[in-house]
Amino acid sequence: MSSWFEKHAATLDKALDACARRYSWTAYPESPSSRVHGTELPARGRREFEALLGERFGIGLLPGHDGWVGGEVSPFSREALGIRYPRLDVDTAFAAARRAWPAWRDAPVRERVGICLEMLARAGDPLALFVNAHATMHTAGQSYIMAFAGCGANALDRGLEALAYAWKAMRDVPESADWERGFGGPENARLEKHYRILPRGPAVVITCATFPQWNGYPAVMANLATGNPVILKPHPNAILPVALFVRSARELLVEAGFDPNLLTMVADDRDHQVTQQLLLHPDTAIIDFTGSARFGSWIEDNCRRAQVYTETAGCNSVLLESTDDLAATVQAIAHSLCQASAQMCTSVQNIYIPAAGIRSGQETVSFDAVCAALRDAVDAHLCDPAKAAVLCGALVNDGVAQTIEAMREQGARRGHIVRDSAPYAHPDFPAARTATPLMLAVDLAAADLYGEERFGPVSFLIRAPSREAALADATARVRERGAITSHVYSTDTQFLRHAVDAYQVAGASVACNLVDMPINFAAAYSDFHVTGLTPAGNACLTDLAFVTSRFRIVQAKWRSDAR
Amino acid sequence: MSSWFEKHAATLDKALDACARRYSWTAYPESPSSRVHGTELPARGRREFEALLGERFGIGLLPGHDGWVGGEVSPFSREALGIRYPRLDVDTAFAAARRAWPAWRDAPVRERVGICLEMLARAGDPLALFVNAHATMHTAGQSYIMAFAGCGANALDRGLEALAYAWKAMRDVPESADWERGFGGPENARLEKHYRILPRGPAVVITCATFPQWNGYPAVMANLATGNPVILKPHPNAILPVALFVRSARELLVEAGFDPNLLTMVADDRDHQVTQQLLLHPDTAIIDFTGSARFGSWIEDNCRRAQVYTETAGCNSVLLESTDDLAATVQAIAHSLCQASAQMCTSVQNIYIPAAGIRSGQETVSFDAVCAALRDAVDAHLCDPAKAAVLCGALVNDGVAQTIEAMREQGARRGHIVRDSAPYAHPDFPAARTATPLMLAVDLAAADLYGEERFGPVSFLIRAPSREAALADATARVRERGAITSHVYSTDTQFLRHAVDAYQVAGASVACNLVDMPINFAAAYSDFHVTGLTPAGNACLTDLAFVTSRFRIVQAKWRSDAR
What is the ipTM of this complex? Predict the structure, then answer.
């Protein structure tokens, strides 16, 4: 048996402690700075990425390989990556996973967890992180820095967190027990009992176009650690980051003496999608899905015999009631409107402002003045093109640009445009598909516009008759469409407490008066990401519920006092 | 806040320890013996039960009360109990649960768990246990002794076990955390975070006709402890035991300052069943079901938006391959065929015997001789009418008698009758609906007969071409119909290990060579009851997965370094 568990035992212990006490910690390098890595490693990472372009992706033989697929286009260069991935026959892929399964199922929990720890460590190796950053940038549209940290260390930390919870849940089951009692006879009966962790079965993990690793790593770790083979299905626009991880992980599985088909990737393209075929396959025992709320809901309704975990999207809101630092407040909110072009699951969309304005220190600031301050704060974030590029990245697909067009037209008709969206000039990629935030002022009558997710840099400054009306509407949206983040800004302690309670009872977590930090940030080991109580997802990354149903317990018992 | 948590803290700690180390322990009195309780208390229990007969059950005002229902008939006296229970309007019952919910939801976890511990303690009070024993006997058909222990202490222990797991899962979430990290600015951001346990919503708990408390207590405890209101729906044949518990628990809730509608009972009768209305109610967030596999499967397929936990039934089997003590082996198996007239979820139905016979010590015993030994062992259990009555109890309903009729006819045609069933004369209740075991010898071609649950004292002695064929067929039944207990008797270590693995991989737990004890016995704190991997149920009593999804975590965070 390998010594990977021992090698990474301190990391696992630290992750368990961080989950229990929920402080800030990371096990992986977050910064791509040459001050940390020198200049050669980043350059090598770029070269390795560039060498992948226009080629068949070398991932070895995958089961059921019957052709090639792949149509990724860089949101920055707008050029096709030209990378082709094996196309797999779905039934063959499942059959291979089932064949690979028994040895993994029967391996000691420590061995599986050790291999998973090593899998993360290899993905967290600096060179791998640089390659991953370029791969993420040119598929998911994230800026290089965001791609390095957000889809590198931050995502790996979530994977390690899920692994720690899986370990904790399995460790809760003892391996054996002695049991003794009388049944009225002359002697007690003594039994020896053995408890066995039995994984549920093949897991299908669907990753999304914008942050494929962030939910992907936790799902893969939770499934593999508990003994389930995994079939990864990347979004057709963002295959490469997943493929890099799968290649590395499969090599490790072989090195560890296991069948690599414990982890396969079934890639597809937009014209021949295999997602439903995977989800409805009779072998599918577990589904982890990140993507649209509509499809997530379809899965919850239709994939009845699988254990389903979803993170989709919601109508994230800000309720701006009062502040003692308007400048910092609008700066913080504006950051969320810009970051990753508001294509994060934590991006804010709906900003409620009472019609009578808000208290700012001793003054009242009118609705229009708050809108102007928010607009100016967005502009301030974007005035330096280099910084704007780092902050905003690119639009992941043309659909986002179309959403902006549609909302501009509707917003102008139903309310007014506080700030129009326009492409910004990316300093390195002139062809990049970019857009600055579109900000629309509307009132509650436009709930059909803002009452669902408008994916991308579109926000609504919602004029509410009162703070109570704002809170009622915001929490109604949480119930109806879900939310992943919610913010309240208020200096009125009583109202703040009331608002937090109202959001929480509606199923949402709340951040209060967050300023001087990126308010989109969700911290591994600390923030329970997604509550599971709203249409924005039925699962939380990561809690015990995320892992406890991925395995079951079977036992054997016999009399230990018999001959 | 009450001191019930403190009062019962040692009991909870002991339960947690027992769950972790899985030894034998009970927190409640198991024996009804007058050596323990004297003679007055048992007599008083009987008088209290008798005083209930023919009356409206005094449970105070239940929400939406619009009439009376109840048609229970004693399987022993065959007389109507004549007890009438409030009939409730379902919508009103849910509305009342929702009104009662917030105060309970927002109560400290310790307070809720303390009240639950007291609820169990009151149900475990000796007088309550005596009343409960009579109530269970004259509804579920259990013998007095079985009703006292199996539906008393044994069931309460399972409730305490679920409560301990709920406490453990909730305790895993800290109340608050300090979090600090830099985001590139001059100073770190420091956040204070608070984590709140949020229950999922109203739970509907469906109890069964034969052991209403055994699954009922764990479900009620797991739900109430995690903050969910509960609507109990007893089987129309076994309302009284549930009603006694609900009355006591509601009194306690009032005493503790809570709305008693946190726990209501919606009784019905066979002609006007409300189960589907409850299950499909839009307010239903959680379902706990014990009952038929068919209905359990319907719930899993149709109650999509609720968290569903089922324990149904399976084809429990014995694989008899070899033994070094045939007398003890057949005695143990025969006990399972007799106990509670094989109306337990752990009763054995299918006994596989190789056609060439089995090795017993140095001898080979033929198939027919094994059948004869099993028949004789059953007869030996029943020769003393008083003991037979204690062991077998009564048939819970006429359907069981009809099953015996049908299987006798089919078994004689398709195989042969090894032992016919007949009523036995109950010493105390001449009218009792009783039946001794029907034992049918068949071969694998009769899989349509034995391949599903035949509820009641019907067993199949299955002539298998070989031990491997026996194992293959038995595990195929597990996959197809589920199993709650499986037994292997073999002195061949290698075969035994192979058989255990095959059963486990099919999703079943296995008992090996159990003799000299009641093999149906499932021990709280020790046996993970139901694996959740077969059609016999999707949930286990009790593991972390049974409790972790009954609540969710919402958080609030703010900068602790701000003004």
Answer: 0.96
